[in-house]
Amino acid sequence: MFGAKSFSCFTAMAAALVFILLNVAMVCHGGKTSSFIRKVDRAEDMPLHSDVFAAPSGYNAPQQVHITIGDHVGRAMIVSWVTMDEPGNSLVRYWSEDSPHKKELAKGHHVTYRFFNYSSGFIHHCTLRELEFNKKYYYEIGMGHTIRQFWFMTPPEVHPDTPFTFGLIGDLGQTYDSNKTLAHYQSNPHKGQAVLFVGDLSYADNHPNHDNVRWDTWGRFVERNNAYEPWIWATGNHELDYAPELGETEPFKPFRHRYHVPYKASGSTEPFWYSVKIASAHIIVLASYSAYGKYTPQYEWLEAELKKVDRSKTPWLIVLVHSPWYNSNTYHYMEGETMRVAFESWFVKYKVDVVFAGHVHAYERSVSATNCPLSTDDMHLI
Ligand SMILES: *[C@@H]1O[C@H](CO)[C@@H](O)[C@H](O)[C@H]1NC(C)=O
Ligand SMILES: *[C@@H]1O[C@H](CO)[C@@H](O)[C@H](O)[C@H]1NC(C)=O
């Protein structure tokens, strides 16, 4: 399945692992890679006063800082953050490590939204463009009030022989276990350079009235990693936030305002399905909870997108989707079936290398599979 490319992965707990692309000989570390055993008790959300939710000090200090790739090839970065006291400005000052005196200024914009009786802070999004590949950049936000400084590395230029290390996290939430997952990922010696996030971010919808304060706490919680490395977002069922009983009938409203992705760069019309190319990988993000039947925008986009994949430039073709097409657990069993029926033959035709999914909170992987009987007996779980 992986041809001359090699594949090695290091599993962490629940849904976090580091995934490495190396273009050397075939190595595959199967078996047990972690001593972690999940406790059986239901995970408990960290209380609002937890250290990881503390807002940064200072008037109107930027919080919930997060970045994602801002174009189709990794030469741009979207920087997002929230100010709570007043709009402030959406300026980002940035410079490369090589030329600390050549500071650039980019201007973004801010949005706000209401959800039932919750009013968001001022959510800023600013895209830094024409960055150099494989370079460390520092950036500052909060000019005029409280300035905070962060940094990131741009990915290397798209090239078939360029190695890259992805982290893989899904269904993170904000429980004590979520905190352990993030700490585990960050302590992995095989440092991830970007996170592939397979949906289900904050689980704010588990709280009364989908308490959107829990979107804010989540943003503050993951900032310690997400302000420094891009997370590639896919949406899960916990991003739907469809609540007609609260008068909220616009699906994905909090996600759409808070998490911007470069969907237009890949010809998509919605931020829920899109693609990015990073190093030697072409990554396609699909949306389990947006329409994907024949004639829908997602269907037509994917049909066209798969034809654009150039394996001579990006030998790896990776798909992220929330709901798995194969699942031997009773929980969420067959929820991914209709999408499998819609798209699996294309994945075979275009030789997708690996599909990462979340949703089921149990680690499971299989050899390449297609059109498997529903018993999954023949699926070769490994
Ligand atoms: C929203 O409504 C709930 C339930 O009535 C209440 O507990 C909460 O304090 C309200 N929040 C705001 C921000 O008004
Ligand atoms: C979360 O994890 C970090 C890093 O390990 C730790 O410093 C912090 O105290 C933890 N917080 C909670 C509430 O578990």
TrEMBL record:
EC annotation? 3.1.3.2
- Keyword Chloroplast assigned: no
List residues of the Calcineurin-like phosphoesterase domain: 165-363
Q: Which molecular function terms from Gene Ontology are attached?
A: acid phosphatase activity; metal ion binding
Entry keyword Transport: no
Known cofactor(s):
Zn(2+); Fe cation
What protein does this entry describe?
Purple acid phosphatase
Q: Which organism is it from?
A: Vigna angularis var. angularis
Print the organism lineage.
Answer: Eukaryota, Viridiplantae, Streptophyta, Embryophyta, Tracheophyta
